Amino acid sequence: MSKLYLIPTPIGNLEDITLRALRLLKEVDIILAEDTRTSSKLLKHYDIHTPMQSYHLFNEHKVVDSWVQRIKGGTTIALITDAGTPAISDPGFLLTRACIAEGVAVECLPGATAFVPALVNSGLPNDRFTFEGFLPDKKGRQTRLSQLATETKTMIFYVSPHKLLKTLTDFIATFGA
Questions:
Q1: What whole-number distance in Å separates Cα of residue 58 and Cα of residue 1?
Q2: pTM here?
Q3: Are residues 26 and 48 in contact, defined by beta-carbon separation less than 8 angstroms?
Q4: What is the rounded distance in angstroms from the CA atom of residue 56 to the CA atom of residue 41?
Q5: In sequence order, what DSSP letters do the residues of 116-148 get, joined into one string?
Q6: Is 95 exposed, middle or buried (0-12, 13-18, 19+ CB in 10 A)?
Q7: Buried b (16+ CB within 10 A) or exposed e, 117-127
Q8: What pLDDT, on a 0 to 100 scale, did the predictor assign at position 177?
Q9: How many other C-beta atoms can be found within 10 angstroms of the C-beta atom of residue 83?
Q10: What 3-state DSSP class applies to 153?
């Protein structure tokens, strides 16, 4: 039966991938990858020769329906991102939602997600937390931070390296030092 598999990929160390993920990457008909150049390193390392196509934030709106139709037509697809789990601050949500709406089977494998080890290693309370992902760049950024000012749970944000200083400055202004 055709299906969409959401397959987490290693974050940093190529050995941090499950045996099942490797098997499925070899068995599916096609792999959709956020960046084929990045993903080709992983596939080459494990001698996986499954055909690969680009699926990223800049083309997903245009191609999501055609991929759903391919799966409905019998193609089994794996979606991978550069690192971590598809749809967690990476492409995957639109395709997953469209597949579910069309009655297409979707299965997400367990595996790498950057924020879980970071949270566990932090020593911060992790019994209750909120995952915010990336903050908006401009419009809505201060509004979102203001909404979070009274949050008592540990908050997790993704921040790109070149925005770290600005984000920390915004945090100090909103949450205090």
A1: 29
A2: 0.86
A3: yes
A4: 17
A5: HHHHHHH-S--SSEEEEEEPPSSTTHHHHHHHH
A6: buried
A7: eebeeeeeeee
A8: 76
A9: 19
A10: coil
